[in-house]
Design a protein that fits this description.
Radius of gyration: 22 Å
Helix content: over 70%
Structural class: mainly alpha
Shape: elongated
Number of strands: 0
Largest sheet: none
Order of helices and strands: HHHH
């Protein structure tokens, strides 16, 4: 969380922007931030991995069960995990 003086300064900037260019401020507020839809994709992939892991367990495929179980754990538990490139 930002310190109080920084939050107050950001609020002042937002207010000034809304006063100077209300159309831009509205479009900026309504814009979808990048990465917002990714957690949904990650949850769907995690659920698919869980289903495959359960299927592998029923069929007796231990290696497949372990692999998809690890994949499901990474997808579902690591919501804020990001790859960093050099």
């Amino acid at each position: 969380m930002l310190p109080r003086h920084e939050r107050r300064r950001i609020a002042e900037i937002e207010k000034g922007l809304s006063t100077q260019d209300p159309d831009f401020a509205h479009r900026f507020r309504e814009a979808e931030l990048p990465g917002r839809s990714r957690p949904k994709v990650r949850v769907v992939l995690g659920a698919v991995a869980v289903a495959i892991a359960l299927l592998c367990m029923v069929l007796g495929e231990v290696a497949g069960f372990l692999l998809t179980g690890v994949l499901a754990t990474l997808l579902l538990a690591g919501r804020d995990w990001r790859l960093l490139t050099a």
